[in-house]
Amino acid sequence: MDLELINDCVHCGFCLPSCPTYVLWGEEMDSPRGRIHLMKQHVEGTPMTPEMAGHFDACLGCMACVTACPSGVRYDRLIEQTRAEVEREHVRKPDDRALRAVVFQLFPYPRRLRAMRLPLRLSGGLRRKIIPRLERINPSLAAMADLAPPVSARVRLPRKVEAKGSRRATVGMLTGCVQGEFFPQVNEATVRVLAMEGCDVVIPPSQGCCGALSLHSGQEEQAKRFARRTIATFERAGVDTIVVNAAGCGSTMKDYAEILEGEWARRARAIRTVDLSEYLAELGPVAERHPLPLTVAYHDACHLAHAQGIRSQPRELLAAIPGLELKEISESAICCGSAGTYNLFQPEAARDLGDRKAERVLATGADLLVSANPGCTMQITAAIRRRGAQEIPVAHTAQVLDASLRGLGRVSTTPA
User: Which of 39, 248, 335, 364 could lock onto 212 through a cystine, CB 3.0 to 4.6 A?
Assistant: First the structure.
């Protein structure tokens, strides 16, 4: 925990209205300013008590406070360092340890996630009966069942997809863990859009986790191991630009040079990571946009808007589609409650935030919700389903662009 970074905070309070947990509870120690105060206490000798660890655990790591802070406080680095410290010093209760062991031995491993597809399919049809029973046993297991999306057919992407027409660039693509296994149609759409915009797309086989879930939860060594493997995988593929379509993954990969040391940090700096919308906006359009008569509500994923500062690019890409009307969601800067593994480890707070977000999404009256992160898609879809309201389909930015470029007239979506 870096005392110099801690001392950058002047305790002005600009972060308070941007912090989801402070908005929910109004508790000073559950605000960024309060947590930084606790960090300083710990650095100066106060032991890591269960109460202190609880306030750090309650943070979503959404980075809205980084956007709001006029002093440029690196809360992103501070909370990552602090969570690693919590995992080293805090002794968790047996049930909490068991849950975390399951999550970090399952979600970062695509093959293990793949093995969960059949159980998730079975639970889907019995969801309404299963979830109330699981709530009584373990709220985190209930949240896992509630969040599970419909199981899509597996997609096998080729190692390389060539550009349509003149080649303008060659890029690598991260397939991701949750994205690749639960939303493979998003990866298909991403590859097609890049190819139609003149990119050769290299897709290394046997990709592993980028380390995002681990890093954001204090599993520092696991995150570094995954980061080194990801760098080596794309080096072998011969690409120096990686396009990512999941906000949390892109945010972590852009930080590789900070979390790694020595030679690995240098190798990380030699590879550029870009979000899909960021890259397409830089590249500029060449493929024809066909009309899509839709009203679309765009959801700002926290690790895209706050951590990467990418807000205008996806909106510009969507607004350029003929016939598409873009609607804004109120309180767009407040997290939906997904936050990587947060909705599994803090299910009650995540549920409250998800319900809040669902209410504001439905208030737009849009035909379609667009999200750029698989965790957000699952979280908001589950919240809308709980409300029993009229379903609103959810799609990724890539799927909307794909439908327009191919002239489909409609967007293939994930139903809420």
Answer: 248
